[in-house]
Amino acid sequence: MKNKIIVCMVLLFLVGISLGSSILPQDSRFEAKNFEGKRNEILSEMDLTLKEATESGKYKCCIDPPCKMCFLGNWIWDDGTCDCDTLIIEGDFDRVCPECKSGIKEGRCLSTKTLNKTCPVINGGN
Ligand SMILES: [Zn+2]
Ligand SMILES: [Zn+2]
After folding, report:
1. Per-residue pLDDT tens over the stretch 29-46
2. Radius of gyration over alpha carbons of the chain, in Å?
3. CA 19 / ligand 1 centre spacing (Å)
4. How far is the CA of 24 from the centre of ligand 1 (A)?
5. From ligand 2's centre to the CA of 96, what distance in Å?
6. Where are the domains of the chain?
7. Which stretch of 24-33, 69-78, 99-108, 115-124 has the lowest confidence by average pLDDT?
8. In this structure, which ligand is nearest to the CA of 54?
9. Ligand 1 centroid vs 48 CA: distance in angstroms?
10. Is residue 66 within 8 Å of residue 49, measured between CB atoms?
């Protein structure tokens, strides 16, 4: 009986090692990539993360696809979230991030679909 337990533990240990080593090469593959490869990987991870956060309601961006500026912390929110949608609803359009503003200009606004609100109209001017 005791032997069986030891065999099980050894097996688990081996499984652990093979799992661990299957994770490690992925990291080193990333390291081996050139700038373009790394950039592509980061961007696709970022898209996935933003999609998840948008679906879970953490990232309340007003455009589709969501902005990256707020995610990178380059706007008024420090924790990588976006709350542009709320700002628009509250009529606080001045604080909406520039990336979202240009997205709205391009007609990528989501607000009308999600919250039955009207997207702000930006007078092109350019
Ligand atoms: Zn937004
Ligand atoms: Zn934004």
Report:
1. 899 999 999 999 999 999
2. 23
3. 39
4. 36
5. 7
6. 32-126
7. 115-124
8. 1
9. 16
10. no
Q: Tell me the whole-structure pTM to 2 decimals.
A: 0.68
Q: Identify whether the C-beta of residue 62 lies closer than 8 Å to the C-beta of residue 86.
A: no
| CA dihedral angle for residue 66, residue 70, residue 76, residue 79, rounded to 10 degrees | 120
Which ligand sits nearest to residue 61's alpha carbon? 1
Lowest mean pLDDT among 11-15, 56-60, 64-68: 11-15
106 alpha carbon to ligand 1 midpoint, in Å? 13
- 86 CA from centroid of ligand 1 (Å): 9
What DSSP letter does each residue of 59-96 carry, written as one string?
---SBSSPPSTTTTT-SS-TTS---HHHHHHTT-GGGS
